Amino acid sequence: MQEILADIGHWQEAGKRVALATVVQVYGSAPRPLGAKLAVSEDGAMVGSVSGGCVESAVIQEALDVLSTGIPRLIAYGIADETAWEVGLACGGTIEVFIETLDW
Amino acid sequence: MNQANQRSESGESQSKIFNTVAQAIRQDELCAVVTVLGGPGVGRKLFVRRARTMTAPQRQATDDSGSAVVGSLGASALDQAASARAEAAMQARQTTRIALPIEGQEWDLLIDVHLPQEVLVMVGAVHIAIPLVNFAKELGLRTVVIDARSVFATPERFGHADALIQRWPEDALQEMNLNESTYFVTLTHDEKLDTPALICALGHPVRYIGALGSRRTHAKRVTALRAAGISDEKIARIHAPIGLDLGGRSPAEIAVAIIAEIVQARNWSEEARA
Q1: Cα distance between residue B241 and residue A53, in whole Å
Q2: Residues of chain A contacting residue B22, judged by C-beta atoms under 8 Å apart
Q3: What would the mean pLDDT of B77-90 be, rounded to a whole number?
Q4: Is B110 near chain A, with CB under 8 Å?
């Protein structure tokens, strides 16, 4: 969290809305641990990471959707999931990511 | 689930949680954010902190003094149970996801533990410390260099360090918050500077202590520490000779050996906790 606070602060000061994605479950080997975070501004800028690059672009899309609907999402990425296979994790693990609007 | 309603129910206190969390993290406070991951009230937050981990100046700077809990997950029984679990997670220093049964309902919660910023404290603004600052920063550690000797502790040599403190190490250390996220090394070879600094560090739960010097130097140091009343158990916490044995000689090579040992201490102890 520490490493993404400054960017989040700058975005909020500029009046931009921010979504926050957090790794909430890790099965098997995964590049980022439980609690790892990626923040996304409403114009699509990002800071932090949830997977070391494997699923970030998919998470950014979801984050922008979450910003527009205001409803948090819990999404699994990994080899067990058909759709996630397309963006899959190279390491073969599975992660679950919670994506929410940072309005709390 | 109507999100707009949820937000208005929770009212103003909810909008302040993130600012409080951000402030606590910036102040290197051990704290935890609990989030409801599913079901009614998804996204709700409870922020749990332990005031006693703060130093005096931090406590003064905290606006909502005394309140250990901010926000709500929606029910007081749930808040109480969740903050107890958050306390345990902070103790274990481990972010964790739990299923918490309360009043016939199971709550899917993330307890996100925020550890204080990791810091490498270097006593001795010597040659080895120059590359060591670089390596430590690359690993995400804040770097603090302490040396009373103005010839060594110059901004020209240590402009890249996050903090350069030109004072006697034992004085400077007394004002610092040395905790489980602190890595501590003495690099001066000078007993007058190293030994009091080591005594100070040994009085705190720091994650790693290393002391530069040969086996012979360390044997002398052990004698001095024993004479100062330090127990053998505590003395055994000191990594000396410092660093993994990479066979290096140059300052940069020794700095690599030191940082490698720090990485080992960081990861092995975390695995042991898991």
Answers
A1: 39
A2: 5, 8-9
A3: 94
A4: yes
Q: Measure B231 CA to nearest chain A CA, in Å.
A: 36
Tens digits of per-residue pLDDT, A51-93? 877 788 999 999 999 999 999 999 998 754 445 455 555 566 7
DSSP-assigned states of every residue in B81-95: HHHHHHHHHHHHT--
Least confident of A2-11, A13-22, A83-92, B214-223: A83-92
In this predicted structure, what is the pLDDT of residue B103? 85
- Check CB contact of B14 with chain A, cutoff 8 Å: yes
Cβ neighbors of A25 (< 8 A, separation 6 or more) are A34, A76, A94, A95, A96, B97
Domain limits for position A41: 2-102
C-alpha pair distances (Å), A68 with each of A17, A91, B16, B86, B192: 10, 32, 22, 31, 62
Token reading at B54: 């703060």
In terms of C-beta density within 10 A (0-12 exposed, 13-18 middle, 19 or more buried), how is residue B209 classed? buried
Place of tokens 């010097």: B213
Minimal-distance CA residue of chain A relative to B45: A104
Check if the beta carbon of residue B209 is closer than 8 Å to that of residue B238.
Answer: yes
Number of domains present in the structure of chain A:
1
Report angle CA B185, B191, B194 to the nearest 5 degrees: 20
> b/e string for B22-56 if b means 16 or more Cβ within 10 A?
bbbbebbbbbbbbbbbeeebbbbbbbbbeeebbee
pLDDT at residue B269, rounded to an integer: 62
* Interface mutation vs chain B, best among A97, A101, A104, most B CBs within 10 Å: A104
Q: CA–CA separation, A55 vs A49, rounded Å?
A: 9
Residue B188 near residue B170, CB atoms below 8 Å: no
Vertex A48: Cα angle to A45 and A51 (nearest 5)? 110
DSSP SS3 for B215? helix
B130 vs chain A: nearest CA distance in angstroms? 23
Contact B183, B141 (CB under 8 A): yes
| ipTM, two decimals | 0.89
